[in-house]
């Protein structure tokens, strides 16, 4: 890849569609390694590497959703050689949604599908679960969410490394304010764990209000990091949705660029 922002975990030279994955707060590109292995080579799976972590750890993290979206939008032009979809988990779902809006504002090719995972739909009032103004509150939230990430706080050396990006990410989502605008014309698949402690199913289902192209709600067993235990199931959902948006045609790459939903489930 010619960009610092994306990681590819397996070649997909004959893929007709690209899936761009956006990690959760504190997460890195490797969060989607297992999903990428399930979907490659049918789809060209790229995972976003935010500044301030892993091989970008010497770069300052961006503590602002707008700055992250602006930077990602600037990296999208070389990826528009084929249809693409976004899969965002938690903070990544918010970024996927705002990135789709920003690409529309710039009149650039947008996603043919949005997979929004582990995140409630944006509202004007926001959510108290995003407003964590101290490290202690951030750590308490991570422990509440569960998953393997919570274990890092038992190791002081690892904690020193992960806290700067984690702190920046929660500052970004805490300061985010949704700006009303026309809904997207992109099919949406919403995924949420049935035991997620901060994302009620009803709040996740409200994403349907942000698209005119139909939404599909999938509730899977597990908590906020349900994906860790449901990779094959999630891969099947992604595969079916992206195949359903294909426009049949002999010998041609044909997926919609988010202009008109074809074969997608209706509103739930």
Alpha-beta classification: alpha/beta
**Lateral arrangement of strands in the main beta sheet:** 1-3-2-4-5-6-7
Q: Write the element-wise H/E pattern from the N-terminal end onward.
A: EEHEHEHEHHEHEH
Helicity level, as a percent range?
25-40%
Radius of gyration: 17 Å
Keywords: Hydrolase
Protein name: Alpha/beta fold hydrolase
InterPro entries: AB_hydrolase_fold, TEII, TesA-like, Thioesterase
Organism: Streptomyces anthocyanicus
Q: What's this model, at a glance?
A:
Helices cover 31% and strands 13% of the residues. The chain has helices spanning 33-39, 65-75, 91-105, 135-145, 156-175, 201-205, 231-244, and strands spanning 6-8, 18-22, 44-48, 84-89, 114-117, 188-193, 215-220.
Could you describe the 3D structure shown?
The chain is built from 7 helices and 7 strands, in the order ββαβαβαβααβαβα. It is of the alpha/beta class and 268 residues long. Helix 1 links the parallel strand 2 (18-22) and strand 3 (44-48). Residues 247-268 have low confidence and may be disordered.
Secondary-structure map with pairings?
Layout: E1 6-8, E2 18-22, H1 33-39, E3 44-48, H2 65-75, E4 84-89, H3 91-105, E5 114-117, H4 135-145, H5 156-175, E6 188-193, H6 201-205, E7 215-220, H7 231-244
Helix pairs in contact: 1-7, 2-3
Family: Belongs to the thioesterase family.
Protein name: Alpha/beta fold hydrolase
Region (Disordered): 249-268
């Amino acid at each position: 890849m010619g960009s610092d922002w994306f990681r590819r975990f397996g070649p997909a030279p004959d893929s007709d569609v690209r899936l761009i994955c956006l990690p959760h707060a504190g997460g890195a590109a490797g969060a989607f390694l297992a999903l990428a292995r399930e979907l490659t080579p049918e789809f060209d799976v790229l995972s976003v590497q935010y500044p301030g972590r892993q091989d970008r750890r010497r770069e300052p993290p961006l503590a602002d959703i707008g700055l992250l979206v602006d930077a990602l939008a600037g990296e999208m032009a070389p990826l528009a050689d084929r249809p693409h979809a976004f899969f965002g988990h938690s903070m990544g779902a918010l970024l996927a949604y705002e990135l789709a809006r920003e690409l529309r504002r710039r009149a650039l090719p947008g996603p043919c599908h949005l997979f929004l995972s582990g995140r409630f739909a944006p509202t004007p009032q926001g959510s108290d679960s995003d407003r964590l103004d101290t490290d202690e509150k951030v750590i308490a939230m991570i422990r509440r969410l569960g998953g393997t990430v919570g274990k890092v706080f038992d190791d002081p050396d690892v904690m020193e490394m992960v806290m700067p990006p984690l702190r920046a990410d929660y500052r970004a989502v805490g300061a985010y304010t949704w700006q009303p605008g026309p809904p997207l014309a992109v099919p949406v698949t919403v995924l949420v764990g049935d035991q997620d402690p901060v994302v009620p199913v009803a709040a996740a289902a409200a994403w349907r209000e942000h698209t005119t192209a139909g939404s599909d709600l999938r509730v899977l067993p597990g908590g906020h990091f349900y994906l860790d235990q449901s990779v094959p199931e999630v891969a099947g959902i992604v595969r079916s949705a992206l195949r359903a948006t294909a426009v049949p045609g002999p010998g041609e790459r044909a997926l919609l660029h988010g202009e008109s939903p074809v074969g997608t489930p209706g509103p739930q």
